[in-house]
UniProtKB/TrEMBL annotation:
InterPro entries: ABC_Gly_betaine_transp_sub-bd
Any GO MF annotation of the entry: carnitine transmembrane transporter activity
Protein's name according to its UniProt entry: Glycine betaine ABC transporter substrate-binding protein
Disordered as annotated region, ranges: 20-47
Subcellular location: Cell membrane
Length: 311
């Protein structure tokens, strides 16, 4: 009888499916897989994103802000000038921005702050900048054509109509004046909106004008313009690359946000679709971006792959 009882105990133990250690290991594995399926932690929930109200930057800033809101963050969009945009991320009072034009346009900012700012992701390649004119100015095709051009100089009061003084393209233009010997020329400062207003007025009257411009920009879809050749590549040759950059430590402080930034990218097609709605038709950028998100779920899924949503 005792032998039978001992045999029964052994059979029950075998049917139990493993030792206590094995059971604990299985539980540990289950916990690990559950944590992986949840994706990265949210961490710091409140984020600040500074931006300059340039054509592409207005779109991309609202887009990335909206994506981060979808995964649980509170994102404050802060409109500033170029200098504060860079310095605030460097000193940690802001967290990231989507507007680093490198290696040429924002070279001075990168050199100053690269110890405190990290490149998260290149979001757009070949973003060219140049002095630009209406295409009807047939005799002006290169920056070299501005040197000593008395007829043109007098027609425009020897002025290149610029934008905000802290913009990288303004620094490039000052360098171009020196490199190409444009001693008679003066670069005026204003804002992108003021520069575009003067450009539109000149084009309507078919008058000469010289302005700094860049792509992507909605204005090229509404006017026949040409970028002047830049043999010395003061403006960066074929074009800069545009990066999302963040303060050091953000990856650890907000892992989920950082993953979204690593996966977010842009195309000329998407930016060109939204820019005219905001800048030419005066639509709310937040609404334009939300419409794009609603109409492009597959693309949004790529940007948010592996990231839990809280909506």
């Amino acid at each position: 009888m005792m032998a039978f009882a001992l045999l029964l105990i052994m059979l029950l133990a075998a049917c139990g499916g493993g030792s206590e250690e094995e059971t604990e290991a299985d539980a540990s594995d289950d916990e690990g897989s559950e944590e992986t399926s949840e994706g990265p932690e949210i961490g710091q929930k409140d984020l600040t994103q500074p931006y300059v109200a340039w054509a592409r930057e207005t779109i991309s800033t609202h887009m990335l802000g909206a994506l981060l809101e979808k995964v649980g963050y509170n994102v404050e969009l802060k409109q500033v000038e170029a200098g504060p945009m860079w310095s605030s991320v460097a000193d940690g009072s802001a967290d990231f921005h989507t507007s680093a034009w490198l290696p040429a346009t924002h070279a001075s900012y990168w050199e100053k702050y690269e110890g405190d700012i990290v490149k998260v992701k290149q979001v757009l390649d070949k973003a060219p900048l140049a002095l630009s004119v209406p295409s009807y100015m047939e005799d002006v095709n290169s920056i070299e054509d501005l040197k000593g051009n008395e007829e043109l100089g007098e027609a425009v009061d020897w002025q290149v109509i610029g934008i905000d003084p802290g913009a990288g393209i303004m620094e490039n233009t000052e360098e171009a004046f020196e490199a190409y010997g444009l001693d008679n020329w003066e670069l005026t400062t204003s804002s992108e909106a003021a520069m575009l207003a003067e450009l539109q007025s000149a084009v309507e009257n078919e008058e000469p004008i010289v302005v700094p411009l860049w792509k992507p920009h909605w204005i090229f879809g509404t006017m026949d313009l040409k970028m002047l050749e830049d043999p010395q590549e003061i403006y960066g040759g074929e074009g800069d690359q545009i990066y999302t950059v963040a303060r050091k430590g953000l990856e650890e402080d907000a892992p989920r946000a950082y993953k979204v930034m690593e996966q977010y990218n842009e195309s000329y097609e998407m930016i060109d679709e939204m820019m005219p709605k905001v800048h030419a038709e005066d639509q709310d950028p937040a609404e334009v971006v939300q419409e794009f998100i609603d109409n492009n779920p597959d693309l949004v899924d790529e940007w948010l792959d592996g990231v839990p949503r809280e909506e």
